[in-house]
């Protein structure tokens, strides 16, 4: 299990360039991973996906999506940050997968290209011949198994609310049955509701633990659902 992520600040030549100029990354010392399910949350550009990608690169996963066994080229899939972090394991896990929602098409294309039956581990049907959401679920249901680490970058991007609940069940089954570990960058208040998970916020220029009920994702969604008309009136009114 991955226990800790440490930023090797003394090796970084400058904090004035991306990605080290991101405030949350700049302030990072270490993140302790004490539960099987951990969430990274924060506004766009806060650094959560950048750090998740660096962890994936350090695990030797393809940063465009895949495992150690998926080798294909995608422009700018290298991670500069990965060269300046240290991963602490107990024990070391080599099996796993990195899902990057924005480049999933490239991964699905790769699976079709390596072997005409290359999608046998993905439900027996080409991921390219399924809807975006169906292909995500085929991956989760068929490819995810055993003691492994799964790094998911915005998996809700292709999932309806009902399918997000299905993903929660899959996560629960893998965590409790196989002791699988998940680190998930998300904007979904549904996924964030997973019980007993740790949530790290990347907002306000730092990385810190936060309770589910204190996340913007929960509070904005809750307020909108309970006060929809008032919320929209305030949003649309002219200055």
Tell me what you see in this structure:
With 239 residues, this protein is of the alpha/beta class. The protein has helices spanning 23-26, 48-58, 104-114, 132-143, 161-178, 216-226, 228-236, and strands at 2-7, 30-32, 37-41, 85-89, 96-100, 149-153, 181-185, 198-201, 208-209. The strands form 2 sheets. Strands 5-6-7-3-8-9 form a 6-stranded mixed sheet, with helices on both faces. The chain has a 3-stranded antiparallel sheet with strand order 2-1-4, covered by helices on one side. Strand 6 (149-153), helix 5 (161-178) and strand 7 form a beta-alpha-beta unit. Helix 4 (132-143) packs parallel to helix 5 (161-178) and helix 6 crosses helix 7 (228-236). The longest helix has 18 residues, at 161-178. The chain is globular, with a radius of gyration of 18 Å. The N and C termini lie far apart (52 Å). The model has no long low-confidence stretch (mean pLDDT 89).
Strand order of the biggest β-sheet? 5-6-7-3-8-9
Derived from helix and strand composition plus strand pairing, the structural class reads alpha/beta
Determine and state the CATH class. Answer: Alpha Beta
Based on DSSP secondary structure assignment, what is the total number of beta strands? 9
Name the poorly predicted regions: none
> What is the fold named in CATH at topology level?
Rossmann fold
What order do the helices and strands follow? EHEEHEEHHEHEEEHH
Mean pLDDT across every amino acid position: 89
End-to-end C-alpha gap: 52 Å
Instruction: State the shape.
Output: globular
Radius of gyration: 18 Å
């Amino acid at each position: 299990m991955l226990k800790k992520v440490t930023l090797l600040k003394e090796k970084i030549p400058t904090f004035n360039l991306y990605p080290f100029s991101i405030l949350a990354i700049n302030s990072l010392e270490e993140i302790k991973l004490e539960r099987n399910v951990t969430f990274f949350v924060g506004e766009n550009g806060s650094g959560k996906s950048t750090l998740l990608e660096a962890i994936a690169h350090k695990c030797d996963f393809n940063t465009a999506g895949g495992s150690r066994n998926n080798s294909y080229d995608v422009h700018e899939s290298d991670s500069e940050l990965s060269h300046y972090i240290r991963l602490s394991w107990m024990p070391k896990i080599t099996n796993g997968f990195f899902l990057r929602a924005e480049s999933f098409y490239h991964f699905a294309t790769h699976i079709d290209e390596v072997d005409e039956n290359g999608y046998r581990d993905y439900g027996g049907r080409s991921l390219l011949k399924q809807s975006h959401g169906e292909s995500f679920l085929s991956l989760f249901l068929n490819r995810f198994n055993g003691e492994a680490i799964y790094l998911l970058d915005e998996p809700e991007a292709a999932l309806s609310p009902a399918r997000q609940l299905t993903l929660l069940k899959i996560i629960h089954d893998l965590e409790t049955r196989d002791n699988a570990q998940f680190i998930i960058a998300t904007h979904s208040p549904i996924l964030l509701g997973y019980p007993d998970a740790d949530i790290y916020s990347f907002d306000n220029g730092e990385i810190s633990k936060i309770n589910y009920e204190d996340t913007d994702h929960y509070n904005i969604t809750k307020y909108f659902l309970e006060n929809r008309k008032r919320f929209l009136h305030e949003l649309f009114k002219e200055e």
